[in-house]
C-alpha cells in the first residue's frame, strides 16, 4: 500500500499518472487518520487512528512542538503499513524531536522499546500524551527523555550504550539554528546497523541543503515522495568506513 519510488521514462507517462493518482489516494488516506473532537471542551486535543487505536494528542504551548505535523502522520502511516519490512516488535527505537509524541506512541503500540526525546520544555506535554495513549496498551512502556541536539550527548547517551535499531525523525529540519547539531546527533546515536527513518518536509532552500550535508555521513534512500505535501520519506544508514 505504501508504494516505492522509481524513475519513469517518457513512454511510461500512463504509469506516472497512475502513480500520481495513487499518491493522492495515499495522502488522502494518511490525512483521514486525523479527527477532531465532536464536543468543544476546554482542553484541546486532536484524535488519530493508528494500529487499531484511537490516539488523543493534547497540544502544547511551544509553537513547533505544539501540534502534530503532517510528516508525523506520514511516518506513522508508514510504520503501520510496513510492519513486514520494518517490524517494530522488541526493537530499540529512539525518536528525536518527538513533539507531541504521536510517532513514538505508534512505534510503542507496534511493540517497540521507545525513547521519545525533545527539548526540556516539551517534555511535560510529551510525557502526558505518551502515558495517556500507551498505558496498558503496549508491550514495552515508552520512556521520555530530554535530548537537545548536540548537547551533552556523551553524558546522556554514551556511544558505548547506544544500541538503537531505529532512529525516527519527523519534520526536524526547518529554519532553526541547530542543523549542524542535528547532524551530530544523528551521527552520535547511529551504529552501523541502525536504520534511520526520516520524514523531511521541504520548505526553504537553505534548510533543504541539509539533505546534501546528511548524505556526506549517511547512505540515503528515498522510500516515498508526496509532492502535494512537499514531503519525502527517507531511509538512511551510516556510511560504512570503506565508502565514507
Ligand atoms: C516541526 S516540530 C515536529 C514535531 C514532531 N516530530 C511532528 O512531526 O509532529 C520540530 C520538533 O523538533 C524539536 N526541536 C527543535 N529544535 C530542537 C533542538 N535543538 N533539540 C531537540 N529538539 C528540537 C521541537 O521542539 C519540535 O518538537
UniProtKB/TrEMBL annotation:
Give the UniProt record's GO annotations in the biological process aspect.
methylation
Q: Which GO terms describe its molecular function?
A: methyltransferase activity
Instruction: Could you list this entry's UniProt keywords, alphabetically sorted.
Output: Acetylation, Methyltransferase, S-adenosyl-L-methionine, Transferase
* Pfam families registered for this protein in UniProt: Methyltransf_16
Transmembrane helix as a keyword of this entry, yes or no, is no
- Which InterPro entries has this protein been placed in? Methyltransf_16 (IPR019410), SAM-dependent_MTases_sf (IPR029063)
Tell me the Gene3D superfamilies matching this sequence. Answer: Vaccinia Virus protein VP39
Q: What is this protein called?
A: Methyltransferase like 21E, pseudo
Q: Which organism is it from?
A: Canis lupus dingo (dingo)
Q: What is the lineage of its organism?
A: Eukaryota, Metazoa, Chordata, Craniata, Vertebrata
Q: Which gene encodes it?
A: LOC112655894
Amino acid at each position: 500500500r505504501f508504494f516505492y519510488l522509481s524513475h519513469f521514462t517518457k513512454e511510461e507517462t500512463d504509469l506516472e499518472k497512475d502513480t500520481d493518482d495513487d499518491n493522492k489516494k495515499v495522502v488522502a488516506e494518511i490525512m483521514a487518520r486525523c479527527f477532531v473532537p465532536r464536543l468543544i471542551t476546554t482542553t484541546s486535543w486532536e484524535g488519530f487512528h493508528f494500529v487499531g487505536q484511537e490516539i488523543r494528542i493534547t497540544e502544547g504551548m511551544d509553537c513547533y512542538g505544539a501540534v502534530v505535523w503532517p510528516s508525523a502522520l506520514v511516518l506513522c502511516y508508514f510504520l503501520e503499513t510496513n510492519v513486514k519490512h520494518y517490524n517494530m516488535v522488541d526493537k530499540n527505537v529512539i525518536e528525536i524531536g518527538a513533539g507531541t509524541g504521536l510517532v513514538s506512541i505508534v512505534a510503542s503500540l507496534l511493540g517497540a522499546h521507545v525513547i521519545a526525546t525533545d527539548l526540556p520544555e516539551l517534555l511535560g506535554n510529551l510525557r502526558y500524551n505518551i502515558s495517556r495513549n500507551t498505558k496498558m496498551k503496549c508491550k514495552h512502556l515508552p520512556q521520555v527523555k530530554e535530548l537537545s541536539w548536540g548537547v551533552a550527548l556523551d553524558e546522556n547517551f554514551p556511544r558505548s550504550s547506544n544500541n538503537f535499531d531505529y532512529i525516527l525523525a519527523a519534520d526536524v529540519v526547518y529554519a532553526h539554528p541547530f542543523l549542524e547539531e542535528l547532524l551530530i546527533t544523528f551521527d552520535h546515536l547511529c551504529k552501523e546497523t541502525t536504520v534511520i527513518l526520516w520524514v523531511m518536509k521541504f520548505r526553504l532552500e537553505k534548510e533543504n541543503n541539509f539533505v546534501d550535508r546528511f548524505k556526506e555521513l549517511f547512505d540515503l534512500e528515498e522510500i516515498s515522495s508526496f509532492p502535494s505535501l512537499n514531503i519525502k520519506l527517507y531511509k538512511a544508514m551510516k556510511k560504512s568506513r570503506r565508502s565514507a
